[in-house]
Amino acid sequence: MNSPLAPTPSPVLASTSTAPLTPSDEKLPFSAKLGYGLGNVANMIGKQAPKQLSLPIYNVALGVDPGSISTVLALARIWDAVTDPFVGDWSDRISTRWGRRRPFIFFGSIFSGLFFASMWFMPHGLSEAGYITYYAVTSFLFYLGLTIYSVPWYALGYEMAKTYDERTSLMAWPSAIGPLAQIMVAWLYAITQLDFFSDTLEGVRWVGAGAGILLVGFGMMPVLLVREVPVAPAPQPAPTTKKIKRGKTEFWRGCAEAFRNRPFLALTIAFTSIMIGSSLGVGLGFYMNTYYIYGGDTKAASVLIGWIGTVSLITTIVFTPVVSKMAKRYGKKNIFVAGIIWAMVRSIAQWFLLTPTAPYLGLVNAALMGIELATIFMLCHAMIADVCDEDEHSHGLRREGLFGALYAWVYKTGLALAFAASGYILVFIGFDRSLGGGQHEGTLLSMKVAFCIVPVVFYLIAFWAMRYYDLTKEKCERLRAEIAIRKQAASASGAA
Questions:
Q1: Is the pTM of this model over 0.90?
Q2: How confident is the model at residue 466 (pLDDT cuts 50, 70, 90)?
Q3: CB atoms within 10 A of CB 475
Q4: Residues 140-152: pLDDT tens digits?
Q5: pLDDT tens digits for 326-366?
Q6: 486 neighbors 291 (Cβ within 8 angstroms)
Q7: 430 to each of 284, 291, 341, 433, how far by Cα in Å?
Q8: What sign for the dihedral angle of Cα 43, 47, 52, 53?
Q9: Are 311 and 366 in contact (CB under 8 A)?
Q10: Which whole-number Å values give the CA distances from 232 to 280, 398, 487, in the listed order?
């Protein structure tokens, strides 16, 4: 029986979507890299802030059942994932005077910033069902806006850099700048606990509004600083192949071809598994620090959570250029796999670093985590850009939007399951908000197992999947050279 990751031969079409490279194509200007990197601040606020605030605000502050909150958050992310491929395909096919991606980025940043702020302006005195309904409606609108922003933003990055190593260099910018937003997000809950506010709900309204403004402002940076590379219309198929119709048929055909692409499928499975494992940690991290480390003291825990995020992300920033250089020397796949192994070891080691007698030992784990963040989250996107080259080589089309969206669709579905699981894990292990710091000893032990050991299972799945990713630097360079030769031949034939 063939492996589900086995490659499937496909017809090769001539394409004029990317011209042969010249030396000036190989290096992107500083302003373009900076503008693209600053866009990740908006992306990170949108991705991380709801995870950081939802359970502390709606469960601890408002008393809503954690399973219900996690279910709504999971459904919102599934909605986000379902809309991704359609937005990605739309941005692949649209043509405007401002480019294919920038109009989406412009409107998506405004829409997502507005509805992120609205998530935390819930009216006072609602019933539990009322709070859940409000949270569900605003979450779905927010994630629709985030899809409109983030899918074209990722696609813009996949098509900006044209060479194997320049893609790594480009992705180092959002990987180094994005953690600045994550540091801010790590302190959002702590800010809501300041005595300056009358209560947590007043604090989260101000925090949500401020974060929404930042989301819009940084979301505009790619629009202002990045000049899109013109892409020629999709090529006509060779005479020996059937004409491909634009529209729904081509969309579904593109989806099928993407999931028959072995490197794409391997990378998607690996990254989704990593995201599930790490998201379980994020979902349970607030409870571990609040109830296991500090016995129910939310203010003390919020400060520690802020420092954990700060230390891990400063480490990410410091190690991003190091990882970039190592990937150029040893290959993206090898360093990516090393990052997975590091994540497994780090996750097991944190069992011994989480102790109520020495709360700030958790900062050691945070520093170790920053190294895997610098490795995994930068290289995965650089490798998706390489996958798009293989797709063009096989099918003659540039489909960064579709591939990026399908990739996001799979891992966001995994995230949704992880979010739902984190809430129901709390219910399953017997967490009771009314007990405060008096949680049962068995509950706290089970929480620690779920936080430290369960993610390792998903990292092992990622390690297995990467065995099937075979795009080396040499292969990528050969694919691009063959694509360039094919284009030159097609151009000469057309001129004749």
A1: no
A2: very high
A3: 15
A4: 999 999 999 998 9
A5: 988 899 999 999 999 999 999 999 999 989 999 999 999 99
A6: no
A7: 14, 13, 32, 10
A8: positive
A9: yes
A10: 43, 10, 12
- Which pair of tokens denotes residue 105? 């980025």
Highest mean pLDDT among 35-44, 64-73, 236-245: 35-44
pLDDT for 1 beyond 70: no
The proportion of the chain whose per-residue pLDDT surpasses 90, expressed as a percent, equals: 30
Q: Amino acid identity of 236?
A: Q
CA 416 to chain centre: 13
Contact of 39 with 215, CB cutoff 8 Å? no
pLDDT of 494 higher than 70: no
Nearest Cα residue to 334 out of 371, 375, 386, 275: 375
Mean pLDDT over 181-192 rounds to 86
Domain-by-domain residue ranges, the chain?
37-227+258-485
From 22-26, 39-43, 312-316, 420-424, the region with the lowest mean pLDDT:
22-26
Instruction: Find out whether 430 and 442 touch, Cβ atoms under 8 Å.
Output: yes
Task: Tell which CATH architecture fits domain 37-227+258-485.
Answer: Up-down Bundle (1.20)
**What is the separation of C-alpha 426 from the centre of its chain, rounded to a whole number of angstroms?**
25
Is the Cβ–Cβ distance between 258 and 408 less than 8 Å? Answer: no
Half-sphere exposure of 39 (CA within 13 A, CB side): 34
Report the distance separating Cα 488 and Cα 482, nearest Å: 10
Please report, for residues 4, 263, 269, 402, the alpha-carbon distance to residue 259 in angstroms, rounded to integers and kept in the order given.
10, 9, 11, 11
Q: pLDDT tens digits, residue range 63-81?
A: 888 888 888 887 887 887 7
Average pLDDT, integer, range 95-99: 83
Rounded CA-CA distance 466/369 in Å is 20
Cβ(211)–Cβ(45) under 8 Å?
A: yes
